[in-house]
Design brief:
- By secondary structure, this protein is an alpha/beta fold.
- It has 18 helices and six strands.
- Helix 1 packs parallel to helix 9, helix 5 runs antiparallel to helix 8 and helix 12 crosses helix 18.
């Protein structure tokens, strides 16, 4: 096959990637978008196999079969609540693959020509640094999300100085690789080692509250590593695909930071931490002010409501309560109640986490309202039901300038006539601070597992 036809095929695959991403922007077109993107990747793989001097296709076919089998099993077995961990691992594997492929290409070039040249050297350095940071950073993110590591911020003495030193060491080794090609292999693996430590150090300070941003950023890193590897291999499809992933990841990172009113530097340095004296402050806020309720009492309140807004959070995901929430909404709607969902951009542990959960429960997408759209309606809402959310509804974001979440846009559920908060306890959210909403005059606390709480409420409503 001529190079012109191969490049034309790569262009077609790239267009399919773009159409696939566009399709993923809405649930109605998401399946089609996913299929278009997958077909584009299949086309790119076939063209690459045609374009390259493949020594043994059997090994490649065996790898594809093994990878497909592992991917299928993981996709079928993964819990919907563990999807953020899955995304973190996929980001990491992308970065790790870039490191290995770029290193192998450099070794092969050294054997054939004796000296890797110009563009390949620079691209190899970029691939090694970004890929290693992505791989190990993603593993740390996975460990935090899975509970294998502490979810809180972990910082060593002079942590940022150490990060700076590791980054400068990686760059210095990169310069050495370029200036002394005869040392290229040794310098490359030293780059990978230094960057691997940097990846761990960069992710350790990021607390659980910032994981949505961390996942977006690591996704961007994996794309940039892939694009750099594309330059190493001279593969146009990989360059375009990596650039798309890198750019989209950076855009999403910016959106998430804006939704939290945080700078990226603040996120990376672990700025989301509880203030000192949190326990005492919690006692001051909650003592004698918490009003607990039951399913039977809530049934009477919901029975008289005309408009209900549900604000889901990570607690709903942990309890797998999305199907029970859908059943509650269906029951209320059958009685003429208007039910909508207020979705905060950073609710859960990854961008769109609540959207995915509710879509799985077949909640109509048009009922999911974004922050700016739902907030003006809370004053006309009879009941705002908060299910497992905490920081995203905490009013101190707008009342306390010293709070870790100061300035973060929140769902203004407190403006509703009645606020029902479903939580297992008064434990703080990821930010580690108490929530005055729980002690507000119009708030009722419904202490229970989210799924059981909603199912009991459904049963009580049917009996009312």
């Amino acid at each position: 096959m001529s190079q012109a036809l191969i490049n034309l095929g790569y262009l077609a695959a790239s267009v399919m990637f773009i159409l696939g991403i566009k399709g993923l922007s809405h649930p109605r077109t998401a399946v089609r978008g996913n299929l278009i993107g997958a077909l584009g990747m299949l086309l790119a793989i076939l063209l690459t196999l045609t374009d390259r001097n493949i020594v043994r296709f059997e090994i490649i076919l065996l790898g594809m079969i093994a990878g497909a089998a592992i991917g299928a099993v993981m996709a079928l077995k993964i819990r919907i609540t563990a999807m953020p961990q899955m995304v973190a691992l996929l980001n990491g594997f992308g970065g790790g693959a870039s490191v290995v492929v770029a290193g192998a290409a450099m070794i092969a070039a050294s054997v054939v020509t004796g000296v890797p040249q110009g563009q390949m050297q620079v691209a190899t350095v970029a691939s090694g640094i970004i890929g290693a940071v992505t791989f190990w950073g993603s593993l740390v993110a996975f460990g935090k999300l899975e509970g294998l590591l502490t979810e809180g911020s972990v910082r060593l003495p002079a942590h940022q100085w150490l990060n700076g030193a590791l980054f400068l060491a990686s760059l210095a080794l990169g310069v050495l690789l370029i200036l002394r090609p005869d040392w290229s292999v040794s310098a490359y693996w030293l780059i990978v080692i230094a960057s691997s430590i940097l990846g761990v150090m960069l992710t350790l300070p990021i607390g659980g509250a910032d994981m949505p941003v961390a996942i977006c950023l690591l996704n961007s890193y994996s794309g940039l590593a892939g694009a750099a590897t594309g330059f190493v291999l001279g593969n146009n499809a990989l360059i375009i695909t990596g650039s798309l992933v890198g750019a989209s990841g950076l855009i999403l990172t910016q959106i998430m930071c804006k939704a939290m009113n945080r700078s990226l530097v603040n996120v990376l340095t672990g700025g989301f931490e509880a203030a000192e004296g949190t326990a005492r402050s919690a006692d001051d806020i909650y003592e004698g002010r918490i009003k607990s309720t039951t399913a039977e009492e809530l049934a009477m309140i919901f029975d008289a409501a005309q408009r209900v807004v549900i604000a889901p959070g990570y607690g709903m995901a942990v309890a797998r309560a999305q199907h029970a929430v859908r059943d509650l909404a269906n029951l209320l709607e059958s009685r003429g109640v208007v039910v909508e969902y207020g979705i905060h951009p950073v609710a859960g542990r990854m961008p769109g986490h609540m959207n995915v959960l509710l879509a799985e429960a077949e909640v109509p997408y048009e009922k999911l309202k974004e922050l700016d759209e739902i907030n003006p309606t809370f004053e006309q809402t009879d009941v705002a039901m908060v299910i497992g959310a905490n920081d995203t509804v905490n009013p101190v974001a707008s009342t306390d300038s010293s709070s870790p979440i100061a300035g973060m846009p929140i769902l203004q559920v407190g403006k509703a006539r009645t606020v029902v908060v479903v939580k297992r306890s008064l434990s703080p959210g990821f930010a580690g601070i108490p929530n005055p909403l729980f002690a507000a005059d119009n708030t009722l606390m419904y202490f229970a597992d989210a799924e059981k709480a909603v199912l009991d409420l459904v049963a009580a409503l049917k009996e009312a």
